[in-house]
Amino acid sequence: MPRKDHWDAVYTTKANDEVSWFEADPTISLDLIQQVSPPPSSVIDVGGGQSFLVDRLLDSGIDQIAILDISSVAISRTKERLGERAASVEWIEGDITSISNVGTFDLWHDRAVFHFLTERKDREAYLELAVKSIPVGGHMIIGTFGTDGPEKCSGLPVCRYDADSMASTLGNRFMLVSSQNHVHATPWGKEQHFFFGVFQRV
Ligand SMILES: C[S@@+](CC[C@H](N)C(=O)[O-])C[C@H]1O[C@@H](n2cnc3c(N)ncnc32)[C@H](O)[C@@H]1O
Fold this sequence. Notes:
Helices cover 30% and strands 27% of the residues. By secondary structure, it is α/β, with parallel strands linked by helices. The strands form 2 sheets. Strands 3-2-1-4-5-9-8 form a 7-stranded mixed sheet, with helices on both faces. It starts with a helix and ends with a strand. Bound molecules: S-adenosylmethionine.
């Protein structure tokens, strides 16, 4: 099934809190975003889905926010939830592995998208766009399943990472600033081990 169809089907058939990656409050992402210094004035959330991160970023007063997702259903639902506030956000619908330009951002955030890129050419396309979109000195926060995390998500195979494997995957255009392991509890109480890394574009 094409990627877009898969994700549109997920968001059409499941409520926000019926997906394993649901979190009522994206605390770890927000904490890491606040730690990145100087505070970003522009953020892109890659594969934002229906995450509440956009609500919190709007609350925090960040002046340029873009949400990118392959699923038009997820984007429509999130816009609907935000109501008038949706107009303050740039919405980009597309596959991160085939978009050629999204503009530039101080901070690139990705929770649970990069790990779906199991083919090298897709990771290379993603990273080519990230390098183009984050100026030197900007940051990338990336959250994936950790090395002891699940082998699949949403029925799709994933790659799992730790600080060393992510640093070597990102290559010499990104420098590891900090990393941490995180245990996410799904809405049905199952633990999933995540890796979160903060990288600086060099
Ligand atoms: C596991 S969900 C995580 C959603 C969100 N980041 C969160 O933390 O709640 C993965 C998201 O990435 C999107 N996605 C998957 N593959 C993608 C791709 N190749 N390009 C853009 N978005 C993608 C999906 O539609 C979905 O919203």
